[in-house]
Amino acid sequence: MSDAVTRPVTTTSPGLLASLDPLLREWLPRQRWFAGKGRPVAGFTLVAATELLPAGGKLSLHHLLVQVHQPLTPAQGAPPAPGDCYQLLIGAREALPPRLAPALIGHVTDGPLAGRTVYEALYDPRPADVLLEALRTQARIGGLRFERDGQLEIRSGLVPRVGTAEQSNSSVVYGDTFILKLLRRIVPGVNPDLELPLALAHEGCPRVPPPAGWMSAELSGQTYVLGVLQPYLQGAADGWELALRELAKGQDFGAEARALGRATAEVHTALARALPTLTLGPPQLDVLVDGMTQRLDAAAQAVPALRPYAPELRTAFTALADLAADGCTWTAQRVHGDLHLGQCLRSPSGQWWLIDFEGEPAKPLAERRMPQPVVRDIAGMLRSFDYAAHSVQPRVSGWADTCRAAYCSGYAEITGRDPRTDPVLLRAYETDKAVYEVVYEARHRPGWLPVPLSAVRRLAAPQPS
Ligand SMILES: Nc1ncnc2c1ncn2[C@@H]1O[C@H](COP(=O)(O)OP(=O)(O)O)[C@@H](O)[C@H]1O
Ligand SMILES: O=P(O)(O)O[C@H]1O[C@H](CO)[C@@H](O[C@H]2O[C@H](CO)[C@@H](O)[C@H](O)[C@H]2O)[C@H](O)[C@H]1O
Predict the structure, then answer these.
(1) What is the pLDDT of residues 261-279, one digit of tens each?
(2) Which keywords are on file for this protein (predicted)?
(3) Which of 22, 220, 239, 353 is the most buried (most CB within 10 A)?
(4) pTM (2 decimals)?
């Protein structure tokens, strides 16, 4: 199923997008959250425009949903393909104060904002406050709908600041009390980043911050989730930082890995209670294995360094299909979908929390919401221990293996099932994840490519029978 936005809606600001077009062409591809890197931008279509602070004032604020057209290949003359839809929050002022210089998009020469300077408005406290206030008061502005959970009080006047983490979306922290994540590439339908934390909150799962508010847009009869407000875990450190800190000291991370295994298992148990599960037999397994194989083929096509390993990697998937053909079945349920150390926060009291249930952002929503074996998340964490171990010099021998064992033991303490007792399933999912990472790194962080490639070499090596 495609996530494409099909029908643009009319705008209240004629000429606005045309006047921003040359600035956005230059600015958008430089944003970390822009998913279409490496392909030229051929043009834009305005999907919706909402004035959150009116034009004509000293500061105006424009909420835009913009479809970005990018030809699939940079071939001359290729027609622009219907593209991804992005959420933009554009501020416009006569002049930009120096503190907002890093947020500059550019100077507008014509159209309704002619003579003004436009910038990424999240960096500006006043626009950021507009969003919190809209959530607090459950506002409806144009097609935008702001909602909140009645149980959690949202105070007004909390001072906003933009989050500094490397991320796929953008976040604003309000007074160290709440964090609002604004989704950047938006798709129609139920978004797991809201759906799963809400379901977990209803289950009383204490490992996930409960949504306090959310914003969405109604477009052509479809809902687009645009942002989620959650309690901010003040003083929390993420698992990636903590792991690197321990590695730098040459210390093992076994106790934390075990606690992470327990936290993952608690979340999985609550998700299995809250949402449907299903049994995977040969027909479903074939679909799953086909998906893994196709992703591998596409990855090998895109990243030449993967090609020599592809035949051996394929055996990880055929071995799983063979088990299914022999009558093995597995249980599938809703999972996190992109679990790694950076998605785990440890609060100062030592509790682990899981965040960011969006799944792998590049996958279609329907696929991200499909029930899957829990091993999918477990494989993600195991890959993450391997990433951490590879990112420091000198290497700490056996560090990732200790984490792996402790994490799986912690998981088994809660569920009674140790993931290592199903090595074929685990290898298939670790392989699928490493292949995803090869593509992710080639596209976003080429300097990191050797990390998943070293895992690929290991996973492609002959397996003990
Ligand atoms: N509830 C929270 N409390 C404290 N920090 C958080 C919270 N949620 C997210 N963060 C911080 O924001 C960063 C980005 O959040 P995340 O949901 O992973 O966004 P993205 O999908 O854009 O990567 C996290 O790595 C973490 O540092
Ligand atoms: O932005 P997200 O957190 O949703 O996830 C994407 O970016 C991650 C990197 O920031 C990427 O994770 C990979 O690198 C991590 C170290 O930086 C490592 O811990 C993970 O195991 C590894 O997969 C993730 O894959 C990507 O979806």
Answers:
(1) 999 999 999 999 999 999 9
(2) ATP-binding, Carbohydrate metabolism, Glycogen biosynthesis, Glycogen metabolism, Kinase, Nucleotide-binding, Transferase
(3) 239
(4) 0.92
